[in-house]
C-alpha cells in the first residue's frame, strides 16, 4: 500500500491500533508519518466513530488535510472506516464541546463565541485584583489537578477564585470567552456533564496528536479525560521543540507518555530536511545522534555565526544576502528569524503604531494594507475597530463576519471589504500625515460606514463616536513613510518570530540573537530559550547564520566553533 516510507516510518505506520508515543527529530518526516499512520488507522478501524488527527496550528492542519487527501485518492474506502477528522486541538474542543455544549455550564442563551479582548462591549466586564480593576479577558486559567488556578496581569499575580469565577461567569452569561477561559469551560463541561464526555469518547475512539510537545496542562487534562473514558490517544512530536512555556507546554507529557503501561514508544531519527553540517550542530546541542539523509555540500560552509552591531542592521542583512549569493540561493528564500515581536518589527523595518483603541485598530489596518500588502489582516483589524463603534450587544461582529450565516451578513462583509480595499473612499491611505491628513478622512468615512450599518443592517451605534475616534497619540507624520513603499518587496527578507515558522522548512535562515539567546542556545535544549534557538537552527535546509552581538562575541566564540559553526 505504501512504498516510499523509511524503515523507521514503516514500523510506526504498520503498528496495530492502539496508543503509541513517537519521539521525532527535526526534519524526520513527521507529517508524512502521521498522515500515513492516519490512513492505516482508517483502514484498520472497523467500528463506529471517527479517527481524529489534531495539531496546534492552522498551517499544520491545512498541510495534513492536503497530504491526506492526496494519499486517500490511492486507497480503497472500507465502510465507515473512511471517516476521519483533521483539526487544531482548540478547533476540535470548540466544535465538539464548547460551541454545542458550553451553554450548559456558561448559563448563556446563545452559542458561545470567542473574544480577542479589544471589543468595545468588554469595557463593562472587569475583575478586581485587590488593587485595581482589570479586564476580565485578562484572566489566565490554569488547570491544577481537579481544580483551577487563576492569575492576571503581566506579573501573573494570583487571583482568588472568589473574584475570578464570578467575573468569568458574568462574561460567559453573554456567551463570550477568551482563549484561556475557553479551555476552562471545556473542562467544566466534560467534568460536570459526563454524558458529553462519554459521547465524545464514543465518537472519537482513536485520536492522534501531532506536535505533542506543545500539549499544556489544560489540553493534557482534556486528553486524559478522553483516555479514561475509553479513547486511544497517540502522540507524535519532538520535546526539543517545545517552545510554548508560557502555556506551560514543556514536552513532559510526550516524554512520559511512552512509559505508560499499554503505550508503545518509537523514534524517528533521520533528518531529511537539513544538510549534514546543520544536523551536526543540532546533535551537539541536543546530545542526540540523529543522521542526515542528504549528502554533504562540497566546498562551502553551511552553518555560520557572524557579529553584528545593533545600529548597523543593514550591514548584517547585506552580509546575509552575500552568503545567499555565494551559496546559489535566491535571496527571496532567505528568512530572518527573531526571538520576540519587538525584535522582529525592528529587523523588518516597521514603524511603531499610532493611535489608541478603535483608531489604533484602523491605523494598523491601513499599515497592513499599504505596507505589508496583507488585505486579510487589514480586514480583520478593521472589523475589530468597527465593533468598537457599535453598541456592546454587537460585540460578536468579528466572529459573525468571519462566518456569515445569512445574506445580510454576507452583504455587510462585502461592504466592509470595499471600505478596506479603497483608500480613495474607504480606509484612508497610510501615507497621509496621521493627525492632520489621515484622521479627518477616517472620522468622516468611519461615521458614514457606521450610519450605513445602522440604517441598512439594523445595528446600533455606540455612544460618543467622536470620543471613540479621537486622534489621541496620532503624530504629525505618516503612518508609514513613503520611502517604505518604494522598497522593492522582492529585495526584502521575510522576517518572523521563531514561533511563527515552527514546523516550516526554510532554505536559508538568519537567526538574530541577543546575548542571553546565544548563551541559552549553547547550553542546549534544557530551557525554552535554548529550544527556541534549536528550532531556528533546524528550520534551515541549506544555510544557517547565527547573528551574535559583537560586544559579546569574544565570550562565546570558542563555544560557537566547538558546536560546528564557522565565522563569516
From TrEMBL:
- Residue ranges annotated for the UvrD-like helicase ATP-binding domain, each copy included: 3-275
Supply the Pfam families for this chain: UvrD-helicase
Kindly state a single biological-process term from the GO annotations of this entry: recombinational repair
Entry superkingdom: Bacteria
InterPro entries from the UniProt entry: DNA_helicase_UvrD/REP (IPR000212), P-loop_NTPase (IPR027417), UvrD-like_ATP-bd (IPR014016)
Q: Where is ATP bound in this sequence?
A: 24-31
Give the GO molecular function terms. Answer: 3'-5' DNA helicase activity; ATP binding; DNA binding; hydrolase activity
Could you tell me what this protein is called?
DNA 3'-5' helicase II
Species whose genome carries this gene: Bosea vaviloviae
Amino acid at each position: 500500500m505504501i512504498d516510499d516510507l523509511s524503515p523507521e516510518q514503516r514500523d510506526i505506520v504498520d503498528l496495530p491500533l492502539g496508543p503509541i508515543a513517537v519521539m521525532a527529530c527535526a526534519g524526520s518526516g513527521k507529517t508524512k508519518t502521521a498522515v500515513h499512520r492516519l490512513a492505516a488507522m482508517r483502514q484498520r478501524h472497523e467500528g463506529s466513530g471517527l479517527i481524529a488527527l489534531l495539531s496546534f496550528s492552522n498551517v499544520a492542519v491545512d498541510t495534513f488535510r492536503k497530504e491526506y487527501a492526496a494519499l486517500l485518492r490511492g486507497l480503497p474506502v472500507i465502510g465507515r472506516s473512511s471517516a476521519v477528522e483533521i483539526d487544531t486541538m482548540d478547533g476540535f474542543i470548540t466544535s465538539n464541546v464548547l460551541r454545542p455544549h458550553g451553554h450548559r455550564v456558561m448559563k448563556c442563551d446563545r452559542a458561545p463565541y470567542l473574544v480577542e479582548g479589544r471589543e468595545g462591549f468588554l469595557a463593562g466586564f472587569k475583575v478586581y485584583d485587590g488593587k485595581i480593576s482589570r479586564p476580565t479577558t485578562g484572566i489566565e486559567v490554569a488547570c491544577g489537578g481537579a481544580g483551577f488556578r487563576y492569575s492576571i496581569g503581566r506579573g501573573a499575580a494570583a487571583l482568588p477564585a472568589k473574584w475570578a469565577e464570578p467575573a468569568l461567569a458574568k462574561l460567559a452569561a453573554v456567551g463570550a470567552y477568551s482563549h484561556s477561559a475557553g479551555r476552562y469551560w471545556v473542562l467544566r463541561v466534560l467534568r460536570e456533564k459526563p454524558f458529553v464526555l462519554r459521547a465524545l469518547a464514543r465518537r472519537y475512539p482513536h485520536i492522534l496528536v501531532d506536535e505533542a510537545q506543545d500539549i499544556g496542562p489544560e489540553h493534557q487534562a482534556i486528553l486524559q479525560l478522553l483516555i479514561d473514558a475509553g479513547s486511544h490517544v497517540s502522540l507524535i512530536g519532538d520535546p526539543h521543540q517545545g517552545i510554548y512555556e508560557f502555556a506551560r507546554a514543556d514536552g513532559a507529557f510526550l516524554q512520559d507518555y511512552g512509559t505508560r503501561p499499554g503505550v508503545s514508544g518509537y523514534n524517528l531519527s533521520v533528518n531529511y530536511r537539513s544538510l549534514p553540517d546543520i544536523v551536526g550542530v543540532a546533535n551537539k546541542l541536543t546530545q542526540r545522534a540523529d543522521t542526515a539523509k542528504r549528502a554533504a555540500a562540497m566546498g562551502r560552509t553551511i552553518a555560520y555565526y557572524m557579529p553584528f552591531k545593533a545600529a548597523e542592521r543593514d550591514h548584517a542583512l547585506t552580509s546575509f544576502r552575500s552568503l545567499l549569493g555565494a551559496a546559489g540561493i535566491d535571496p527571496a528564500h532567505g528568512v530572518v528569524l527573531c526571538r520576540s515581536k519587538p525584535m522582529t518589527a525592528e529587523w523588518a523595518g516597521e514603524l511603531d503604531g499610532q493611535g489608541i483603541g478603535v483608531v489604533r485598530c484602523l491605523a494598523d489596518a491601513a499599515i497592513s494594507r499599504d505596507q505589508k500588502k496583507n488585505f486579510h489582516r487589514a480586514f480583520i483589524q478593521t472589523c475589530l475597530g468597527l465593533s468598537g463603534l457599535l453598541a456592546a450587544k454587537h460585540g460578536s461582529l468579528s466572529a459573525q463576519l468571519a462566518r456569515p450565516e445569512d445574506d445580510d451578513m454576507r452583504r455587510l462583509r462585502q461592504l466592509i471589504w470595499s471600505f478596506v480595499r479603497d483608500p480613495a473612499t474607504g480606509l484612508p491611505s497610510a501615507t497621509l500625515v496621521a493627525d492632520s491628513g489621515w484622521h479627518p478622512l477616517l472620522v468622516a468615512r468611519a461615521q458614514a460606514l457606521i450610519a450605513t450599518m445602522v440604517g441598512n443592517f439594523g445595528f446600533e451605534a455606540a455612544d460618543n463616536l467622536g470620543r471613540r475616534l479621537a486622534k489621541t497619540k496620532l503624530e504629525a507624520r505618516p503612518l508609514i513613510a513613503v520611502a517604505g513603499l518604494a522598497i522593492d518587496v522582492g529585495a526584502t527578507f521575510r522576517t518572523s518570530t521563531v514561533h511563527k515558522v515552527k514546523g516550516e522548512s526554510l532554505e536559508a535562515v538568519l537567526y538574530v540573537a541577543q546575548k542571553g539567546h546565544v548563551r541559552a542556545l549553547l547550553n542546549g535544549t534544557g530551557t525554552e530559550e535554548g529550544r527556541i534557538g534549536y528550532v531556528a537552527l533546524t528550520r534551515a535546509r541549506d544555510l544557517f547564520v547565527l547573528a551574535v552581538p559583537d560586544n559579546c562575541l569574544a565570550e562565546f566564540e570558542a563555544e560557537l566553533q566547538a558546536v560546528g559553526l564557522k565565522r563569516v
